[in-house]
Amino acid sequence: MATIQELGEFGLIKHLTESIELKNESSLKGVGDDCAVLAYPQDREVLVTTDLLLEGVHFDLTYVPLKHLGYKSAMVNLSDVYAMGGMPRQITVSLGLSKRFTLEDMEQFYDGLRLACDAHGVDIVGGDTTSSMTGLTISITCIGDVEKGKAIYRNGAKPTDIICVSGNLGAAYMGLQLLEREKIVYYQQLKENKGNATLEMAEPDFAGREYLLQRQLRPEARRDVILRLRELGIQPTSMMDISDGLSSELLHICTDSHTGCRVYEEHIPLDYETAAQAEEFNMNVTTCALNGGEDYELLFTVPMSDKDKIEKIEDVTMIGFVTNEDEGKVLVTRDGNEFQLKAQGWNPLSEEKDKE
Amino acid sequence: MATIQELGEFGLIKHLTESIELKNESSLKGVGDDCAVLAYPQDREVLVTTDLLLEGVHFDLTYVPLKHLGYKSAMVNLSDVYAMGGMPRQITVSLGLSKRFTLEDMEQFYDGLRLACDAHGVDIVGGDTTSSMTGLTISITCIGDVEKGKAIYRNGAKPTDIICVSGNLGAAYMGLQLLEREKIVYYQQLKENKGNATLEMAEPDFAGREYLLQRQLRPEARRDVILRLRELGIQPTSMMDISDGLSSELLHICTDSHTGCRVYEEHIPLDYETAAQAEEFNMNVTTCALNGGEDYELLFTVPMSDKDKIEKIEDVTMIGFVTNEDEGKVLVTRDGNEFQLKAQGWNPLSEEKDKE
After folding, report:
1. What is the dihedral sign for C-alpha A288, A294, A296, A302?
2. Residue B302 CA to chain centroid, in angstroms?
3. What digits encode the pLDDT tens for the residues A87-102?
4. Do A28 and B45 count as a contact with CB atoms less than 8 A apart?
5. Best exposed site among A95, A132, A146, A356 by fewest CB in 10 Å?
6. Tell me, what's the ipTM?
7. Cα torsion at A234, A240, A246, A252 (round to 10°)?
8. Is A51 close to B153, i.e. CB distance below 8 A?
9. DSSP sequence for A134-177
10. Backbone φ and ψ of B51, nearest 5°
């Protein structure tokens, strides 16, 4: 197989993208010119979102396979388009590659990327590839569309609206803790073996925890929920995807909508595995659900009058209500105590993460 | 002034973008939600381009001021939209920042970015900001539009078409050589002074070379040329911007259009300073013009029948003709010799640049 250096930038892009067939009517021209060319009908608004993912900050290639990373990199962007009530249509993919990556690595990454795009009807229409001095840099931009006037913003929540979340929360965070623990075990054994990996070293034990790993490594953007809301004629008053943790996202909606909220701990949806793992790690599972990120579930508010319709949607839970701003942002615990919600979501600019 | 760490991701983005006013009718919602929301009229096609710029690979902060870097980062993307015959309307800006960058640094970068955007009527509508383990990472996506059916691709050149370029070539490359030379001088002096910068050290001498530095540090995308072509009713048959060097771009157009070309050395537009500097460096100025990148001029082809109109455009030069594919891609030198053009443009994935 040729090396990336032999192929060069244009050769690599060609190799990775030449078999792509554009699926969307709105994709006129994909990879291969100065720009991609798109055409959206008059009655649609165009949605644009972008994410920058850096090795060592957002992902750890010691335990994340490149195919999963490709899948997840696409998915986190698609999720932002769904979070506006829209449908993702195109992505551009920019990669910075250090020398240790092989052509096969990039094929793996693209396999994951394409798997995600195919499942969601999205075209890869462009990007940029370059060398990097330090590991892998991924920048993805996703373009989508939504019916004119139907984009769901963060600022439309009204007092008495019901607060809903899809799926369950905290599982992706627990998956991450599990992977981090096994990484430490691995390096300890490696140290004991004076740096040589041997067959005697214990294999990581993930039995019974597959769901948590899947939630961390292979999250799924909630297209299904958007389609179901549309089928039922529900137009949420506000919506976000939960990437930084429920607390953080709730505070965004409340701040932008100038409201308070009242959320009930007992209604926050949890998976059994998340609870079991939290217990094993001696962690508070509600804290994990509130502050653990990367679930990519949808958080949204609907008018009280939509309550019956919401109950028809499997996998959507009502967790509380929007209140007046002066009532604060309140979590009601199982034992009836009330706490002010705080954003302890992951701060990608915090000192702790920033170790240059 | 607050630090970036104190502000956090959302605070930093807010600080840098809160005074932005959207100028384009097509920009419905900018920074501050899961996606930007745009609305393009039915009779326009949407153009999307993206570039990833990495410290140490694409720019060197020892001699590039952050304000210039912001300006140039925007400009290289706007240039790609002009190269389709379109008008840029929106950009998203993602930044990865290592700890050494201060809030003031980011304000400088944004000042440059906004200067470029204001001059070209472009709105900053979104982005992503995160920490980086290693220097500055910049990813910009630009969205623009063009009249339906009027996007200018690389594949429309026809034999007998005239090949045109705007401005002059090789100056940005010469500017880079100049900066690199002064950097070496600076580090030599620093070494002699045992690492201490002193006032006795010679100041870099750029007198009479300001134009070359400007071309390297503050390139200008050729909006004016696109507007002039439109005024004169000229629809080029193919177009690209010259980012990797004239040779490389000519080969792209010929390959995609299935044609050859015949370009005359004597017609390649050069600035006096470029020629003088090449002589001082003992370099062949034509080689610099053919293979030096980053001029961000436009390369385009027009039917022979547009010759009179083209002559009316100041600052556009006819450098040769499109030929049949089997006639090859030929450079005719001043002394009448013929050479096959080769792409020696900058390969961002070459071994040389890839030093991890």
Report:
1. positive
2. 22
3. 999 999 999 999 999 9
4. yes
5. A356
6. 0.91
7. -120
8. no
9. SS-EEEEEEEEEEETT----SS---TTPEEEEES-SSHHHHHHH
10. -140, 140
